[in-house]
Specification:
Elements lengths: L2 E5 L6 E6 L7 H7 L3 E7 L3 H14 L3 E7 L8 H13 L7 E6 L1 H13 L5 E6 L2 H7 L4 E6 L2 E8 L4 E5 L8 H18 L1 H9 L1 H5 L3 H21 L14 H11 L6 H18 L5 H13 L11 H8 L12 E6 L2 E5 L4 H8 L3
Parallel strand pairs: 2-9, 3-4, 3-5, 5-6, 6-9
Antiparallel strand pairs: 1-2, 7-8, 10-11
């Protein structure tokens, strides 16, 4: 059964289609690609699995297809890799009616979206996420970026897709570590917004761990519903959308300081959420029992709940470059209770330094 959600952004609204076998559904793409060149941007891991199928679907939808395969991994989310997309588009004489189609995980989605935002000052793109993390989070909302050695996702643009097509069957080919990392973002939505969803995740944890199709379909749909609603309220992260960064200030510091690719994004976010929950308790915002409950759920999925043993100065260096910071003050997303998070712009530096120096 296929579900359809909408990200309501006025004339820039777009659908999210969720279901099994959607890579073969030409009608889902027809309105976005007919009579145009569709450039499939993917990576060397995903291309052999799904690029031919998607190309055949896009051709049935009325598009001429071009394929661009990039190296795989967070370490390649760089200017150099982005430029490979531009090189291919220019070599093919791609014009402003060209539509980019991102086939892959979060790295491919971010690179493709950023290329679409900037090629000839902006062209259309469609997201076709193939990892759990991309299906529930990064493919929705229009955030695009590349990494810099000094900070993750520091160079990018907001550029909404024309559509998101989530084929849940692609998760069958996802390596276990990548799949589990995606569950961190599913847990995040319950932690910050919907405690009943968090209850459901706990109840269905064994089924989710086994990739049960029914449990996964609900987890993906509810996660997308929450994100779509938040993005519709605050597209450019001037308010409530910042809550989606729960765990990310600590998590991005882990990814950057450890070296991109050493920790998967979901793994770093899981450890970051555990840290944010513990710091919320330390600040007297949340009860220790609620932080313990969240940490236990993350650990139940096999996600890391302890960060690397970085020196406090390393933490502060990388956290100090976070995009949410204002006037030199570190902004954190913290828990008041499970299901309700807040953006804290008044973080006490002595308290944070003491926390980062504790075991």
């Amino acid at each position: 059964m296929t579900a359809k959600l909408m990200v309501e952004l006025g004339e820039r609204s777009y659908p999210i289609h969720i279901g099994e076998g959607l890579l073969d559904e030409a009608e889902l793409f027809r309105a976005h690609v007919t009579g145009r060149t569709a450039a499939i941007v993917t990576n060397e891991t995903v291309a052999p699995l799904y690029a031919q199928r998607l190309a055949a679907t896009l051709e049935r939808a009325g598009a001429a297809c071009l394929r661009i395969a990039l190296p795989d991994g967070e370490a390649f989310k760089t200017w150099e890799t982005l430029n490979r997309i531009f090189d291919a588009l220019l070599a093919a004489q791609a014009d402003r009616r060209t539509v980019l189609v991102a086939l892959g995980g979060g790295v491919v989605g971010d690179l493709t979206g950023f290329a679409a935002a900037t090629y000839q000052r902006g062209i259309a793109h469609v997201q076709v996420p193939t990892t759990l993390l991309a299906q529930v989070d990064s493919s929705v909302g229009g955030k695009t970026a590349i990494n810099h050695p000094l900070g993750k996702n520091m160079i990018g643009a907001f550029h909404q897709p024309s559509a998101v097509v989530v084929d849940t069957a692609t998760l069958a080919s996802l390596p276990p570590r990548e799949y589990v990392a995606g569950l961190a973002e599913v847990v995040k939505y319950g932690a910050i917004h919907d405690v009943k969803f968090l209850d459901w995740i706990e109840d269905q944890a064994d089924l989710l761990a086994r990739r049960d199709a029914g449990a996964l379909a609900h987890a993906i749909r509810r996660s997308c519903e929450i994100k779509a609603a938040i993005v519709a309220q605050d597209e450019r992260e001037s308010g409530v959308r910042a809550l989606l960064n729960f765990g990310h200030t600590f998590g991005h510091a882990i990814e950057s300081a450890a070296g991109y690719g050493k920790w998967l994004h979901g793994e770093a976010v899981a450890a970051g959420m555990a840290m944010a929950a513990r710091f919320s308790v330390r600040q007297g915002r949340a009860r220790s029992s609620e932080a313990d409950r969240l940490v236990a759920l993350l650990a139940r999925f096999g996600l890391p709940v302890r960060p690397p043993d970085f020196d406090r100065r390393v933490w502060l260096e990388y956290m100090g470059r976070d995009k949410k910071n204002e006037a030199g003050r570190i902004t954190l997303v913290l828990l008041e209770r499970l299901g309700h998070a807040v953006v804290a712009k008044d973080t006490s530096m002595p308290e944070l330094e003491a926390f980062l120096g504790s075991p």
